[in-house]
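Ligand-bound model needed. fe (iii) ion.
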Amino acid sequence: MTNTRRFRDFVRSFTRLVETQGESEEIVLRDGGKLLGDLIAHDEWLPEDCAKPHPQYYQQYLLHCDPLERFSVVSFVWGPGQKTPVHDHTVWGMVGVMRGAELCRRFRPGSPMEATEQQRLEPGSVDLLSPAEGDIHEVTNAFEDRVSISIHVYGGNIGAVERHVFDATTGAAKPFVSGYSSPFLPNFWDRSAEVRASMASRTT
Ligand code: FE
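Prediction:
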C-alpha cells in the first residue's frame, strides 16, 4: 500500500524551507537535499501510475508543483538504456535515485563541449545542480535490462521552464520546454480513511 503521508510530509517540509530560506540557493540545496535523501530512502510512497516506463521515452510525472511555482517534484522513470539529451535547467535542481541506478555526465560550454567522466548514482544518492556552477548534463539509465526511477526537485515549474538542449560536438544550444508525461497529478491528499478511523475510535 502507498504511504501517502510520507510524500505529504516531504511537500510540507519543502514548502516551509522555500518559504523561510528561499532567497538562499545554497541553503535550499543543502537542507532540501537532506529532505529528498530522506524521501528516497523509503520506497513505499510512489503511486504505481507514476512508476510506469514507456517503451521509447523516459517519463516525467509531475508529483507536485508549488502554487507559487517556487519548486516542483517530478518522478523520472527510465526504461532500459534510456537517456536524456545534453541539457541545462536554468533553475537549481536535485536528483535522488530511488530504484536502479543512473549515470550522469556534466558538460561545460565550448565547441566541442568539455565533458566530465560519467558518475554513477546508486539508490539513496542525491546529486545537486546549480546554474551558477554549471548545470549542463546528460543522464542515462545505468541498466540495459531494467527500469530505474529517480525523484527530482527543481527551483521552478520545471516542465514549463524555457531551457536548452545542446549538441555536444558543436556546442550549439537549442531552446526547449520539457513538459510532463501525464496531464494528471496523483492524489496524495485523500486522508479520509484516517479521519474515518479516528471518528470510529471516538464513538467506541
Ligand atoms: Fe537534468
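DSSP finds three helices and twelve strands in the chain.
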